[in-house]
Specification:
alpha/beta, Aconitase, domain 3, 4-stranded parallel sheet, 15 helices, globular, binds FE3-S4 cluster
Length: 393
């Protein structure tokens, strides 16, 4: 891999051990995946934030690093709401460690905003063709597919290394040839907003890490694509997809039709809802906001909760910046007894383990909750999730 004189100097340790280790990681990955050089990135999003997932070893590693990131950088969700962790049932011993992790990241110049939807944050806007190094799988999918920016699915250490150097290896989804669709997915039925998570859950299982080109009868909104991509990245490892006549690269590039085709029928989508329907009325928690809610999604939830009182634990996850920009929406949601949680989510927080069965409207959460939180999950529409929580006045 070609390195500039300055990159060579970093590699030789002239700028200290942290940058030396960071560029060693980037060069090692670049060599494995055949990168010809390092390319500048516009921003980084760094996973490996929840104390639940990185533990003491991760905290020790991050605390050992010195320096300042070169590009706007932001974090993935933490294991708790950084302000109202006690209200989530998080023990103080966990909160202390979580705060140490956040402090260690912030000392590297990383913005303390913990979210899987960095594309909603000021300073993290993206355009077609821009290179970034993001690591949360749904954020990667959204950036690549819905915006047409370019990122590989970075691990926490490689995204952090890219942030410190301001560059990443030129391989994988940074290159045109790897962004071409490899399989057509023909969806034979009209689908509603809530169905996109179920669709992604099914397709991810079927196609693993291929690049699908969807032919849809319905016209998805961006939040529908957010659900679709998040679920495909979880049940499979899809980091990029295209939707005919919808997503930007499909509109700008003349892709050949892939040779392989799969067909999805309505019955397969219904099966996702029915697979855990035996838990209907028996879930003890409802959690929305996977990926983190936009202002528009919060508004929809607030409207559906209007005049209702929830009688089960009810979480709505979003980023702190989105919550702060939501006017009275948060208080309208919380008036029902539901909690708006910032900085965290139902999958990476240990607080989920205090429950038995979680109702979700996210294909990604549906896929991960049983393995990551050791509780049951039930997939339902947004309206059904709200009904599951309760009491209608
Ligand atoms: Fe985000 Fe957590 Fe879902 S990180 S995509 S809300 S699993």
């Amino acid at each position: 891999m070609y390195l500039t004189r300055e990159e060579e100097n970093i590699l030789n340790g002239e700028y200290g051990t942290t940058l030396q280790k960071a560029i060693e990681i980037l060069v090692a990955l670049g060599d494995i995946y055949g990168a010809d050089s390092l390319i500048p990135i516009k921003s980084a999003q760094i996973a490996g934030v929840s104390y639940k997932t990185i533990g003491d070893a991760g905290l020790e590693w991050i605390s050992s690093l010195k320096g300042t990131v070169k590009v706007p950088s932001v974090l993935n969700p933490a294991g708790m709401d950084l302000e109202d962790w006690a209200g989530m049932g998080i023990p103080e011993s966990f909160a202390i460690k979580q705060k140490e992790i956040i402090k260690a990241y912030s000392e590297l110049g990383i913005r303390v905003e913990c979210t899987c939807t960095p594309y909603y944050l000021q300073g993290f806007d993206l355009s077609l063709g821009e290179h970034i190094a993001w690591s949360e799988s749904s954020a990667v999918s959204y950036a690549n597919s819905v915006i047409g920016a370019r990122t590989n699915r970075e691990g926490g250490p490689s995204a952090l290394s890219a942030a410190l150097i301001g560059k990443t290896g030129n391989y994988g989804f940074h290159l045109d040839q790897n962004r071409v669709p490899t399989i057509s997915v023909n969806v034979e039925c009209d689908i509603s907003s809530s169905d996109y998570g179920a669709l992604g859950y099914i397709v991810g299982k079927m196609i693993s890490n291929k690049v699908p080109l969807f032919n849809l009868k319905s016209n998805p909104k961006k939040v529908d694509l957010k659900s679709l991509g998040a679920a495909m990245a979880a049940s499979g490892s899809v980091a990029l997809y295209h939707v005919k006549n919808v997503t930007p690269e499909q509109l700008h590039m003349n892709f050949d039709t892939p040779e392989e085709t799969i067909v999805i029928e309505e019955e397969q989508i219904r099966e996702v809802y029915e697979s855990k329907a035996s838990f209907k009325n028996n879930c003890d928690i409802v959690a929305l906001g996977c990926p983190h809610c936009s202002v528009e999604e919060l508004e929809e939830i607030a409207s559906l909760l209007e005049g209702k009182t929830v009688n089960k634990e009810f979480w709505v996850c979003t980023s702190r910046e989105v919550a702060n920009n939501s006017g009275d929406i948060i208080s309208r949601i919380e008036k029902s007894g539901a909690k708006v949680l910032c900085d965290t989510c139902m999958v990476v927080s240990p607080a989920s383990e205090n429950y038995r069965c979680m109702a979700v409207n996210s294909g990604k959460a549906f896929n991960y909750i049983p393995g990551m939180c050791k509780i049951e999950s039930m997939y339902a529409t947004l309206e059904e999730c709200i009904d599951e929580a309760g009491d209608r006045n």
